[in-house]
Specification:
Number of domains: 1
Number of strands: 8
Largest sheet: 8 strands, mixed
Strand content: 15-25%
CATH superfamily: Spore Coat Polysaccharide Biosynthesis Protein SpsA, Chain A
Structural class: alpha/beta
Strand order of the largest sheet: 3-2-1-4-7-6-8-5
Shape: globular
CATH topology: Spore Coat Polysaccharide Biosynthesis Protein SpsA, Chain A
Distance between the termini: 40 Å
Order of helices and strands: EHEHEHEEHEHHEHHHEHH
Length: 257
């Protein structure tokens, strides 16, 4: 069994954290479950400590100041103990057997850097889910959001984790930049036979915003679009350069003096 470190960034999500944690503890492949409290205004600590009494796999990290979900994920990844990382937001949940299938895929495909799980979108407005292009845009989002991602820790480290620009922190898009770099360098396969992650709609949902913009229901801010594209391009180029440098160094170490 391939052990997986599950990482849950948590900011003001005490209302949903227990549901997310409960979906993690039923996953036998979850060797550890790291909750990162990103300086929440509500207090998830009591929830974590209560569940820790029943499951020793649950760990708590606390950020001294709020730094955003990308920073929280990257910080937790540095503390992870296992060779595979899985990310789940504190308002999403895994469906039964999700990590077992992901772990089995990575065991059977040692040349694959990561795998995506297909996403079920719960509670999203009818105008979105009834749209004729919903399936197409749902697949795109499933290939992007952190809650669908299971990745080898070595690859994640080589890529430098999620980009932590302030723009992404406030407007979203760090997951899209990471996903683009991952896809270009290593591929981005997704298991589409069964839905294995449930993403819940909420008022601050970047997912709903993505659907509305993609479906023409909401006009994007052109300044934000340009800045998002610029930062994404810079991140992808930086990751590609870093991987090339690692490859060059690896080649040099294998060359006899």
């Amino acid at each position: 069994m391939l052990p997986i470190s599950v990482i849950i960034p948590c900011y003001d999500a005490a209302a949903t954290l227990a549901r997310t944690l409960e979906s993690c503890v039923i996953q036998p492949h979850a060797a550890e479950i790291i909750v990162v409290d990103d300086a929440s205004n509500d207090d998830p600590i009591d929830i974590v400590r209560r569940l820790q009494q029943f499951d020793a796999r649950i760990r708590l990290l606390r950020m001294p100041v709020n730094g955003g979900s990308a920073r929280a994920r990257n910080w937790a990844a540095l503390h992870a103990s296992h060779p595979v990382l899985a990310f789940i937001d504190a308002d999403d949940e895994y469906l039964p057997g999700a990590l077992a299938v992901a772990g089995q895929f990575l065991e059977q495909h040692p040349d694959e850097a990561s795998v995506r799980l297909d996403v079920e979108y719960a509670g999203f407005p009818r105008e979105i889910v009834d749209h004729p292009d919903f399936a197409k845009h749902a697949a795109t989002l499933s290939n992007t959001i952190p809650s669908s991602l299971v990745i080898r820790r070595s690859v994640y480290a080589a890529m430098g984790g999620f980009p932590m620009d302030e723009f992404f922190r406030h407007h979203g898009g760090d997951d899209g930049a990471f996903s683009l770099a991952l896809s270009r360098l290593f591929g981005n396969p997704r298991l589409v036979d069964v839905k294995r992650v449930r993403m819940h709609h909420h008022a601050r949902s970047h997912g709903a915003q993505f659907f509305r913009i993609s479906m023409g229901m909401q006009a994007p801010d052109p300044v934000e679009v340009r800045e998002g594209i610029r930062l994404t391009r810079e991140f992808v180029m930086a990751v590609e350069a870093g991987i090339r440098q690692l490859h060059t160094m690896s080649t040099l170490t294998r060359t006899p003096a």
